[in-house]
Structure formats: structure tokens, C-alpha cells
Amino acid sequence: MSPIMADLKALPPLEQSTAFAALQTHFESIESLHLRELFAQDSERASKFSAEAAGIYLDYSKNRINETTRQLLLKLAEERGVREAIDAMFSGAQLNLTEGRAVLHTALRANSDETILVDGKNVVDDVHEVLRRMGDFTDRVRSGEHRGFSGKKITTVVNIGIGGSDLGPLMAYEALKSRSDRDIQLRFVSNVDGTDFAEATRDIDIESTLFVICSKTFTTLETLANARLARALVLAKFGEEKSIAAHFVAVSTNQEQVEEFGIDPANMFGFWDWVGGRYSYDSAIGLSLMIAIGRDGFSEMLQGFRSMDQHFRSAPFAENLPVLMALLGIWYNNFFGAESVAVLPYDQSLHRFAAYLQQLDMESNGKSVTRQGESVGVQTGPIIWGEPGTNGQHAFYQLIHQGTKLIPCDFIGFCQSENPLETEGQSMHDLLMANYFAQTEALAFGKTEEEVKAEGTREDLVAHRVFPGNRPTNSLLMDRLTPATLGALVALYEHKVFVQGIIWNVNSFDQWGVELGKVLAKRIIPELSAGSFPGGHDSSTDSLISRYRQHRGLE
Ligand code: F6P
What is the value of pTM for the model shown? Predict the structure, then answer.
């Protein structure tokens, strides 16, 4: 057995698997069936095709499936070894074999009495030790015990990081802002574009600012460039190297590089190579978030992650939310040929959720070779995109309703609002959620030609006003957006991505596809400065660089 398969069942190409072939045959019989018919045939459909766990209710009845589809999809999961893969992941097997690492983000939210061994060491003890240090530091910042160099209380925290070291804390801070300490504001700097740094820092008081430099590797160009700018600001203000300790902390797996940058390891919070960047915001990467929502809020969030982990690990597949959502995604991706998935939170505070999921899903499953390095042969990870409802309704829903592309959608909503405002006695939240329910109804059932005509529509407008319907949606409904429900929601998507990766037989935990651009950029950087430009790229790249140099006065 090749080392890459050491931990998982040997898999034939997906299209050669028995369950996949059965699904292909079944697809041909169900493809033209309309959700109108499926609902008309069975008044119990909503309850038959729904499941609930960790505070999340999933209604997946508005999908183009019947009982046979569900059974065949569940069989596919069994046949592809999803059960064994789940056990392997939770027990610390080296599933990320192209990087020689375990995949253990679930250990970040394990209870302190659990044991998870990596190289014979119980990593849960380390996790809780870091959580304790983060909690103590958080308390000191929030209480004013940890102060800036000149003695001022910290009121601004600037998180500097990119990708997984930015998107998770940013998304979660926005999501949980209503529960944050409003006397401390968080800012985020990620892009190497100077505008990002300049805008985030233009009005801050350096004396009361803490910079949290987040980088798993501590070698990332963007983050180090921004961190150097921050360092220069602090040194310009105080003129003393000693001031760095009061204004900087680092979060990383790379102590050597942190020290080289000039941050004392006493001000560093660590994590481990078995946590992927895009799976890391519940590690020390979430430090700025913890400062905002407090150690108790953070711990409540970890509890939410844990509830979903436990559900994923133990629930039968027929009731298992991440497995069901993964299988539905495969149904549209590999049989209907859908290219993308829209994620549509009906909650303004989840406005960065789709961006967060883009990295989680697309960096994980945007792969075209199997774990053995052969061509996958089928479509893998979809394009993830989305915006909060109702904003999206007034922008791109037109295409989802009447366009030529099939776009499965995840609707995400809450029964209670964190800001229950009323306008002239009318609940704003009801206005918002009425739209959520209406959209899933309209997408599923549409409006027929007969219905349009019956409204007395002018003949030449009838075709334009028909809604074909049969557009699939998942409805996720939770009571309210708490740290715990956010944790459960994120874990749901993490595990969904995992299951899909297992079924496609790709390594969801490496990201070699980001390397080439980084290497080429390093070569180009000096070519954009003074000195002669030797060329040597292709004619397009050469002429773009020359034009840039001309406009910068270098040629
Ligand atoms: O280049 C992609 C990537 O490696 C992501 O996977 C990661 O989240 C991001 O860069 C940032 O990496 P780091 O935390 O090491 O700075």
C-alpha cells in the first residue's frame, strides 16, 4: 500500500465505483422531475428530508432528490470509506500525507479530559495550556492590566494576517460583534496593498493599540511586510525597542521566525502543524477574537464546534448534517454539472461568511489529482460565493431564479435577531426572514406559464415573467447567532468539505496551488525597481512589466 493511502481505504476512481454508477442511472430517471411534483406526491416530505443537530435545523427537502437518491448517496459515502476516514481524522492519523501531517483541528475544541496522541504525546494538554495563556492575556488586556508602553489602556487591536490567519477571526468578529467589548475595537490588515494598512491605522492611537501578528509559518510576505510597517509605527512613536513587548504579540507555529522578527517568545501564542491555516481560527489564531468576545465567549464557541464534532463522529449518515450536505453537494456537482454553490446568510453580521467559506472549501477541495497523484477524472470542489440576504436579492438572485445556470444555494437564518428593531410596529427581523422563506419557496416552485397568464399578463411579457423553479436550496435555521451556534455552523462546513474530499479522494489539507504565484512574484519584485529590466518572461508579462516601469518613471 502506498504511504499516501496508509490511513484510508484503497479507492477505485470515483466514476468506477458501484454506487456512483447506480447514481448515474438514477440521475437519468430523476433529472427532469420537478420539486412541484415531489412535494405534491408526499405531504410529509419536509419532515422526511430534514435533520437537526448542535442547534442547527437543516431542511433539505427542497432538493431534487427522492428516497432512492438519498439511499444511493448514503451508499456512496459508505463505499468511499467516509466512516473509516472520520475515525482516522479524529484519532490523529496522518491524513495530510503530502505534507506529512495529521489533521486535527478537532483537537482544538476537545474537552480537557480527552486524550489525542500525536507522536505519542497527548496534544489536548498543549491545546488547553495555550487556551489558558490566551485567556489570561485576554483578561489582562480587557481589564487594563496589560497596557501600552506609555501606560494607556488597550482600546484597539489590529490583527495582521492573511488567508486563514485573517478570514476566520474577521468573519467571527463581525458575526459576534454584538457580544464584544465595545470599548475595544478590532481592525484587520491582510492585503500587501498599502491602502489596507493605511486605512486600518490612519486614525488609531498607537499608545493604546495592540498588534496581533498572526501567521502559521511566519514567512508570509504580506503579513511580514505589514508587521514591519506596524513595528515602524510603534518605534517611531516611542523610539525605544522595549516598547515592542507592550504593543506586539505573535501567533504562530514558528518560534524561530517570531524571535527573528523581534517578538519575545513570552509574547507568542503557539499552535501546531496539524492545524491547517483555514481550520485555525479556533486555535490561538483566534486571539484577537477572544479579546473581543472574552474567554467565556470563546469557550462557548468551542463548545459549539465540539457539539458538531460529536454529532459528525457518531450520528448515522442518514441523520448526519455534514454528511448529508456533502452528499447533496456531490449530487449537483457531479451529476447535474453545477459549477458553484451560493451561500446566503440572512444575517448582516455573517457578511464575511461566504468569504471565509471560499478559503475553507476552495483551498481544500480545489484539486485535480487524487491522493495517489492521479487525475481525479471527475469534477471536484465547487466555486463558493455569496452575500447576505436581502442585499443579494437586489443584485444577483435574478440569475439564480431565471438564468441558465443551476446554482444550489444554502440559506442560513436565525429565529431571533441580535438587534430586534421595529419600524412602525413591524419587526425588522420578520421582514428579513419573510424574504428568506419566500426565496426558497420561489426557487423551488417557481411560477408557471398558466399562473402568469391567469394574472392577466400581457402576452408578450408572459415568457419573461415565468419562473421555472426546481432550483435547489438547503435551509439552515437556528435559534440565534451565538458563539456556540457560530462554532457549530463552522464545524458543519469544515466536516462537509472533509466528506467531499474523501469521496473525491483528494487531499483536502494541502494547498500546493498557491506556491507557483508566490515564487514568480519573488522573481518579479526586483524587476519592478530601478535598474535595467532584462525581460525573459513571455511577451505578455514582459510588456506589462515594461509598461508598469514606464509609468513608474523607471524607463
Ligand atoms: O498561501 C496560502 C496560505 O498558505 C493559506 O493556506 C494560509 O491560510 C495563508 O497562506 C497564510 O499563511 P500563514 O498563516 O502561514 O501566514
Answer: 0.97
